[in-house]
């Protein structure tokens, strides 16, 4: 028996979409689609206001780094955003769509369709909710930059130096309400542990988590706080020290791997694209030799479902069985899917989802945590996480047990099983899918203008090489 817990809400999704690479929509699209397919009632618990205190971030990150990152002066609209019409228009777009849809269908405004109309309102709600936590912690002193002389030449000089030192520039800029973002999204992963039990298997989900590139004192690859490492650290404190971390992101899970490269108890497995010049440039087969329980599975351009299945059956499953973990954490990045902007792999939503669910089914005694990750086609990612969530609830939800015919409860097939007739359900953000003709499987439909077939450069001989390397 499994207990299913997910952290998601309009509040959390709007906070997650403060992250610039989310385009003010990625998380909200996913949350709205989860609601549209009525998936949340199949969970035992739905966490709606996640939060973690500043001092809890020190379980991995350095004090100096957290001093700079979790600075209350950043919980505001920063000067570079004040007069930016693009940011404001993107923020308002989903609010307007929600309002128009509500008026069109003439239904009362309920929690599922509410949206904060401004970032200031979002932060105001955040502060009001914090009172319930009695968050009076000020145990981390701010650095010298945090003075009343905000904007002085000296402060600006030190800020620029620190931004470079901690890589808070380029793909990891300081953005408006960054502290709130870090504490809410990290909390969405760590708060899942509040429902951990010794007598019941926990399956916890946070599609906004999986920030696997962040280092101890450096932001990296759109990642500021490494919630994966903090989750593992917390699990170790709970005496669940034998853990497998499995990463399906297109990019190497460098931050998590580095954090545990000297630990035999923490197995890190990263399946990723490894080619010259591709970020982050690590994750070769030989890099695995630098760790005590480090597994890198470097793949080439064009990886498809059948090849990933081969990797899973011949490499991943045997390695996990050898380690025999008590907990498995899966980073469910979707940037290897057909339709992603990287256009490097050609995995399907169904294929990648089935690979993940098969792993969950193969280790029924292990607690499972499913986290988000990369994925740079927001409309595609909402489909992926919604379908994967349905697969998980179909297999493991207590609420579904005893249903006579589960196929009748499948919202992703039609009577004729014709994908071309499968449209995205009506909901408040359905018009975002207008240019894709509202079709759920448009990126996987034969003959679709959105479907592309890539050359697969991965060979069966590489599987044999991997098996020999890891002595399987």
UniProtKB/TrEMBL annotation:
Enzyme class, first EC level, given as a word: hydrolase
Coiled-coil segments: none
Keyword Transcription assigned: yes
Span of domain Histone deacetylase: 22-389
Protein's cellular compartments: Nucleus
Enzyme Commission number(s): 3.5.1.98
SUPFAM superfamilies for this protein: Arginase/deacetylase (SSF52768)
UniProtKB keywords: Chromatin regulator, Hydrolase, Nucleus, Repressor, Transcription, Transcription regulation
A GO BP entry: positive regulation of macromolecule biosynthetic process
Transport is among the record's keywords: no
GO CC terms in record: nucleus
Main localization of the protein described in the UniProt heading: nucleus
GO MF annotation: an example: histone deacetylase activity, hydrolytic mechanism
Family designation: Belongs to the histone deacetylase family. HD type 1 subfamily.
Protein name (record): histone deacetylase
